[in-house]
Structures are given as C-alpha cells and as structure tokens.
User: Which sequence fits this backbone?
C-alpha cells in the first residue's frame, strides 16, 4: 500500500473508502426528485437494454422453476463462451475451465481467494477501478499501487511492473485493458510483455477483460491468446448492456479450477439462473452490441472534442470502454468540489478522479459517454455556460 493510501485507510476503521460515483449519483437523484434535469455522465453503464432476443428468452423461461444450476454454470452458457473464445480470439478453451459468476465483481472475490491466501500482496494500477482497492482491503489482501502516467497514455508496461516489484514484491497483478477510468488499452506486444514479466517474477496475472468488444483502435487481445496461466475475468455488464443482471464469467488455469469451483459452491452456490439463460442468448447477439458500440464511438469523438474545446486536458481519446479521464487543472485542484459544484449549478453529473486515484485524482474528472448523443450535447452546452460564468 502506498503511504498516501495507508494514511487515508487508517482514517477509516477497515480501510474502505466510498465509491464517490455512487455518492454523486445519490445527489443527482435528489436533484431530480426536486424537478431538476440532470445529464448523467457519472456512472459507467449503458443506457440501452439488452438485445430483444435476450428479453424474449427470459420471458419464455420465466414460468419454469428456476433452481440452482451446476456451480460452474449452465453447460450451454459455458459452451457458448468457449465458442466465443474460438471465434473472437482464435483460442480453444475447455468449457470445464469456465465459471459463470455474479458479474465480474464476484469473479474478483473468487479469483483472490482461489489464487492467494489473505494477506497476499496484489498489484493494481493507479488510476484504476475503485472496487479493486476496496475489495482487496475488505477481504484482507494488501493492494500495491503501480502509478501510471498520462504521458504514457495511461498504459501499464512490463517495466512498470518490474520496477514496482523491486520496491515491494507482490504475489498477483490485477489489471484491465481497456481500462476504467482512462479507456487505455495495451497492444498485443505490450500485453505479451506484461504476461512475460509476470511469469518471470512469479506473479499470478488476473486480466479484467470486462471492456472487451468496446474497443475503438482494433480488437482487444485476451490474455488467453498469450498464456494459460492467467486468470481471465469478464462480464456481460458492459458490451452486452446487462449491468443489473449480475452475470459474468471467469476462465481459470487447470491447476486452480477445482478450488474456484469449491469456493463458488460455498460462497454463491451458482450464478443467477435466469441471468445465465439471458447471457447464453446475448452471446449470439453481437450485432446488437455492435450497434450500441457504434453510438459510443460517436459520443467518444463528440465528447472528447467538446471537452478539449472547453479547456479540459485530454491529450487523446481512450482506446476503449466508454470513459474520458480529463484533467481539470485549469479549473480546480479539488475534483470532488468541482463535480459537486458542476452538478448543483449546471446539472451535469461526472465522477471525481479521487475515486480512481487517491493520490493524484484531485486533478481529474471521469466522464462516461455510454449515454445518448443528445445527453452529451446538452452536457457540453451546460458545461460551457458553467465554466464561462466562473466558479466563484
Ligand atoms: C474495470 C471494471 N471491472 C469490473 C467492473 C464490475 O462489473 P460487473 O458489473 O461485471 O460486476 C467494472 C464496473 O464498472 C469495471 O469498470
């Protein structure tokens, strides 16, 4: 843990911190209850529902009893996922190495307890998805932060890992590409370097591939294309527009699958049956998912250009996901205050960088562009007026 993080953690009884995006959402909802119209660029979830065929399949299944499934998940779903790896990544994955999980969030819990003993040190990037730190701390693991830089496109390198490991060794590395909050994605060569560095250092790699599919500079590379030692975690939440369905999956090395299965049996029994049925159908509905992605791609350009025009620092648009992580140096050195003021005065909700980076996050705000194009345009116009009026 960095000094800054441990200092922050020690202020709380167990080291957990709030998810500030949710605090902003709560305030935005309160304003809406008073009749204000808010542009929601704070939470990272698609505005669209799942594909129509997904809903139809669930409606058909609903009258039947929905018992537990096999702990690892429905055979049909895991076969579908194996087919997904064959088609999208050109790799043959044994369905028996796949576990259907309650979103990738449950995948993290299974992965940590499958591969490590509590107390183990697990490296994550800074900035990074806030639940990584909080889940690790909550479960008794020790997060080690690897700082990334805007100059390097927020991309993790093998050199970053080796440097951090020399300072303080760690047992595991959890990282996402494309990443939240920066949208940064590593290339095949860069991922190969990360995989090789982890192997050389004896570090268990956990690859969070939740934003795969939502890639604007070429297809995402799965760690499974380069290694069978990695634990891969993925989800139906983002690409398939199924956040609330709480369904995801993980792929494990042969040496870990039985332990993961045992943990799943005891911690969760199985992933929700209806959601597994929905997910099996969603895998075949990539055309629908691609339509949503095309809309995000337009929003990405629109929002990126608009933010730069307004004076936000955004040297380049992210490679994937649906986030712009923009510097606010010109306006403020307190991201939470900036976001709260912008919400109150302009009715635009965004997430303060301190959610993702407890050290340098005060200089950044994350905007999600998963909403409609109209809401991006309104948000930009409102921010223009808000910034022109001055913040004092
Ligand atoms: C990088 C990353 N991983 C995991 C998650 C959790 O997703 P799920 O809905 O699959 O639990 C999120 C959600 O925003 C995320 O950004």
Assistant:
């Amino acid at each position: 843990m960095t000094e800054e993080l441990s200092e922050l953690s020690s202020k709380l009884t167990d080291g957990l911190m709030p998810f500030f995006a949710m605090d902003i959402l709560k305030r935005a909802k309160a304003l809406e209850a008073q009749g204000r119209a808010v542009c929601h660029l704070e939470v990272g979830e698609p505005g669209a529902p799942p594909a129509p065929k997904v809903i139809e399949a669930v409606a058909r299944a609903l009258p039947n009893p929905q018992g537990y499934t096999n702990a690892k998940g429905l055979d049909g779903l895991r076969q579908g996922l194996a087919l997904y790896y064959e088609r999208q990544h050109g790799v043959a994955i044994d369905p028996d190495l796949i576990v259907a999980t309650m979103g990738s969030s449950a995948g993290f819990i299974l992965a940590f307890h499958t591969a490590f003993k509590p107390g183990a040190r697990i490296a994550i990037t800074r900035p990074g998805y806030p639940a990584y730190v909080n889940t690790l701390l909550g479960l008794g693991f020790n997060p080690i932060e690897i700082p990334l830089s805007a100059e390097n496109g927020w991309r993790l390198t093998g050199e970053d890992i080796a440097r951090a490991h020399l300072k303080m060794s760690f047992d595991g590395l959890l990282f996402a590409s494309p990443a939240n909050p920066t949208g940064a994605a590593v290339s095949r060569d860069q991922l190969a370097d990360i995989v090789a560095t982890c192997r050389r250092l004896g570090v268990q790699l956990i690859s969070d591939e939740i934003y795969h599919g939502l890639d604007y500079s070429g297809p995402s590379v799965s760690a499974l294309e380069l290694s069978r030692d990695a634990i891969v975690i993925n989800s139906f939440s983002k690409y398939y527009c199924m956040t609330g369905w709480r369904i995801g999956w993980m792929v494990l090395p042969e040496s870990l699958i039985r332990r993961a299965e045992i943990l799943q049996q005891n911690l969760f029994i199985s992933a929700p049956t209806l959601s597994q049925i929905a997910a099996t159908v969603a895998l075949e509905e990539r055309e629908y998912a691609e339509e949503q992605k095309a809309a995000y791609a337009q929003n990405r350009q629109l929002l990126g250009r608009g933010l730069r025009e307004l004076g936000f620092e955004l040297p380049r648009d992210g490679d994937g996901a649906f986030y712009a992580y923009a510097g606010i140096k010109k306006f403020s050195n307190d991201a939470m205050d900036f976001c709260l003021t912008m919400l109150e005065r302009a009715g635009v909700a965004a997430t303060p960088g301190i959610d993702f980076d407890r050290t340098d996050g005060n200089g950044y705000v994350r905007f999600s562009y998963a909403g409609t194009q109209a809401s991006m345009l309104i948000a930009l116009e409102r921010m223009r007026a808000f910034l022109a009026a001055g913040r004092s």
User: Anything to note?
Assistant: The domain at 3-49+287-386 is CATH 3.90.1150.10 (Aspartate Aminotransferase, domain 1). The CA atoms of residues 116 and 127 lie 23 Å apart. Confidence is low (pLDDT under 50) at residues 1-13. The radius of gyration is 21 Å.
